Amino acid sequence: MKGKVYLVGAGPGDPELLTVKALRLLRTAQAVLHDDLVSPEILRLIPPTAQVYNVGKRCGKKKIRQVEINFLMVALAQSGLRVVRLKGGDPLIFGRAREEMESLRQANIACEVVPGVTSALGAAAAAKIPLTDRRSSSALVFLTAHQSDDRADGSEALNWTKLAGSGATLVIYMPGRDYAAIARKLIAAGLARETPCAIISQATTQSQRTNRITIAELLSAPQLPSPALLVVGEVVRLADPALMLQEVRVPAVSAASPAAFAAALLADSPAQVANFGINEEPGA
Predict the structure, then answer these.
(1) Is 35 tagged catalytic?
(2) Which of 21, 35, 101, 185 does the annotation list as catalytic?
(3) Which residue is catalytic, options 2, 4, 57, 128?
(4) What confidence tens digit (pLDDT) does each residue in 117-127 have?
(5) CATH homologous superfamily, domain 120-245
């Protein structure tokens, strides 16, 4: 009998931002394939009996190719295991979900997607930045800085110009190390150099750092540790500067008591993790 694969969003880092369903599936998984961006606190919630594979790809360094990840998911499910493909943030936002769902579909493996708190929402909440505001921004755009710079048709420049001219708040995932290149693209697209922006690093973790600047200052801004994202738009002015300096408290998950931590998170929920044995299928 074939198993099933769950594409699960792990959220931005804080284990308390896991959904109830994500936590329940994680605690009953028989195999887990996780990204590098999943926090250590969340990885400690994986049962000791589960097979665990780090299939992370970040900062241009690939430990494993996407085709190998797809093959491993299919092989584990074909052996009858309940597989959790654990992704940072939300699996459907810059998470290679299309390739993985297609490979599972072609192998006739059952698949379910469990959404997570995407990094943009977690970072904005932690930094107290409203991503929309009825006076300054009624639209929100998620985009990635990892786009090809050698498109002969000039479509990338055209896209940046359209986005900049929309008046929307821009949230740029994976800004990389070259902030100046992004600043130049934003200025070339028509955004004023005085437009406020915020670099948010390692959002919702104990190492979170936020740098609120302008696009002009982004040209020479110091690099913050990855993962990071960049929020651009007038809404950044609405954040309280004092909050940018506050430490973020992330619940500690002891390696010796992940089950107790999970039970505490679900204390007020009708679905108790402890009710599921390791070989039981959690209900939808």
Answers:
(1) yes
(2) 35
(3) 57
(4) 999 999 999 99
(5) Tetrapyrrole methylase, C-terminal domain (3.30.950.10)
